[in-house]
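Protein: HAD family hydrolase
Species: Geoalkalibacter halelectricus
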Amino acid sequence: MTLSAQQPQKSPRAVLFDLDGTLLQVEMNSFIPAYVGGLAAHFSDLAPRSRFVDTVISATFALLRDDGDQCTNQQLFLGALQRHLGIAPEEFGRRFENYLDDGLHGLAPLIEPLGLARDILALCFERDWTVVIATNPVFPRQLVEARLRWGGLDDFPYHLVTSYENTRFCKPHPGYFTDILDGFGLAPEECLMVGNDTEHDLAAGLVGIPTWLVDTWLIDRLGGAYQSDYRGDHQNLLTFLQQV
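Structure follows.
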């Protein structure tokens, strides 16, 4: 375990947790194509499968590059589908509900629980800290809730679960983190961001939030461009949180 030279002076008031690769095991390179491919079957009469898949993936990843405004990520995503495929938001919503009813379960085998995740979360709630599931909000709330359920983590009373309905930025944009801070009236130094992605999660440091890099399933696209305040595996994280 690698720690910064300065140990925190007091416990955090809030802990922000990334989800995929941090609180559960999933290979998103398999999950995303499986999700979009299953969804495409419900729009086959409106768009060719390949065009639908390409448009949804493009619109999803475009959210990561957006600078944000007053629109939610959901509005941006659905606007892209309407422009490129002619699918109105209401029509997408209706067919998405059909997908949830008969296709979502097919993604469950791609998610594996992580045993220590429950211990880590339980400790945070025992300490009465604000707990945020700070997953990158490029998916609908139902898809985030399903991953929590399949990971055995859906029974905790989270204070916020970010999804494309309730956000207007994505990680690593600083606005994603400042919106969470503002929503709870928190100062950056009162929080801890926990994640396995050296770009998306460690970007919290840009707004002054201390960061813990969980290196069990490390994602490092930029060759260490962002540095964490703390680093270790899940057992190290649990021990750290027990001691602050």
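Remarks: The chain has two domains: 2-23+114-136+171-243, 29-108.
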